[in-house]
Amino acid sequence: MRVFSLESVIEEFETLTKDAGHVQRETLRKILEQNGDAEYLQNLGLGGRTDPESFKACVPLVTHEDLEPYIRRIVEGEVTSPILTGKPITSISLSSGTTQGKPKFLPFNEELVQSTMQIYRTSFAFRNREYPIGNGKALQFIYSSKQFKTNGGLTATTATTNVYRSEQFKCTMEDIQSQCCSPDEVIFSPDFHQSLYCHLLCGLIYSAEVQFISSTFAHSIVHAFRMFELVWEDLCSDIRHGVLSSRITVPSIRAAVCKLLSPNPTLADSIYKKCVGLSSWYGVIPELWPNAKYVYGIMTGSMEPYLKKLRHYAGSLPLMSADYGSSEGWIAANVNPGLPPEFATFAVLPNIGYFEFIPLERPEGQELENSNSVHYIESEPVGLTEVEVGKEYETVLTTFAGLYRYRLGDVVKVAGFHNSTPELQFICRRSLLLSINIDKNTERDLQLAVEEASKLLAAEKLEIVDFTSHVDLSTDPGHYVIFWELSSDASEEVLSSCCNCLDLAFVDAGYASSRKVRAIGPLELRVLRKGTFQKILDHYLGLGAAVSQFKTPRFVGPSNSNVLQILCRNVSESYFSTAYGC
Ligand code: AMP
């Protein structure tokens, strides 16, 4: 019989973080010992040394591109000896890689499952201390993705699917009182739309028991409730008659969900009444799930644009941002669940990997600039306990599933310390999205610009369903293109002022000066037909992406021609900025 105690999880975390520096040295030693036989390490001349100084001197910082030749050999099954890790790689994870349009391959092994569970338990223990939930279930919008066998015989699927499939996942979900309302057949369904419908249906069947609503990324919750607005009457009818909608055609899902369904006119009436009583679906979550205590999922970084809509659906319920991690490995847990998502921080777990941070400094004169589009000055990476409060860094990760020093490409800011481990705020992805000449704009800059322009829509009671961008170099000079899908039609007048507002909202000095001298053409706002982003999501699902890990690509380059085509074919109108008089 396993005994799980929240106090002991908190205690363990407090102990681990007391002397995070020491734990880090020990963790690096273990990683290097476990992986000492790997070919990658053999070639670097470490000669069995396991101290951070030798590690840093011998092992280079890498990006995914540097690792591709090694990963390709693992995927192809060319060799049987350890290449990147000592312990066997049990499967391959496909990370989102949404910007490039093709998923990245990464090694996955049991160690990653362990660290995922540690992160889940830790943040749950802190969350439950402040917002205790009762025994019950969780309405979780989680989805597995397709899987296939590589030539080398390894299963390849998304990291989240690898986690959901693990034995450990179910045990941990029981421990942390987060059992999903839906049966496994719904999570592991081959059809995302049918899964989503059934998640909603199962959530309603168990509505009295649901303690919280969650998904990996906030986008999936918003997406689920947009769908709910369209299908709620069908859901009520299924519950009333105890007959599953004919839209569910996958036999395994039908069989599993039918078992849960029996005619329940009382529940159907109550849901129906609550839905018609709502105004624009405000507060639908607490209305239909009266025992839910909060809404949980990653809400930071590229998920921030969905917060407004999520707050609308969540009404009075608190939103809690989930942990910080990646397919490459986990990094940090949210141990301050009371902070609103905009201020969420993540405390690094010093035993799940070896962490370094590349200091990123803004050049003189740009320290206070509100834009993220600065060209950072980098210096030598520092250790976990050497970071300074208020400063920004790029995260570097070395895990048990890969002993390389992996640059994650994320900018984080140190908000404070929990004992001796830093609490990080996620700032943005580092890579530039929009750049034509001297202009530099990141995903965050785009997000800020869209947020600014969307204020003009609020007065009209319109909202942006989703957005992305592109650089059009077919005109001379080239110009930025912003794609918007709106909740309903907007007038020409409003849209042309939004377009001007967007153009001016890119405050990067390189952009503004290029616009003034006409080295960059007027920004173009292209309005998309309804449902375009659904088509894009479907396109990525077809490629093997998982909804659970889906992040809308905020930039679509020329190499991503399929998505670009979907966008361009669905433009209903387009506006050019007149903000700079040209
Ligand atoms: P993937 O490789 O698909 O697993 O995505 C990993 C990336 O998602 C990270 O490198 C971050 O950029 C982003 N991410 C993960 N967790 C968070 C978080 N809590 N807040 C913001 N972004 C996150």
From TrEMBL:
The keyword Ligase applies. Residues 445-556 form the GH3 C-terminal domain. The keyword Metal-binding does not apply. Pfam families: GH3, GH3_C, GH3_M. Residues 347-429 form the GH3 middle domain. One of its GO terms (molecular function) is acid-amino acid ligase activity. InterPro entries: GH3, GH3_C, GH3_M. GO terms for cellular component: cytoplasm. Belongs to the IAA-amido conjugating enzyme family. This is Jasmonoyl--L-amino acid synthetase GH3.5-like. The lineage of its organism: Eukaryota, Viridiplantae, Streptophyta, Embryophyta, Tracheophyta.
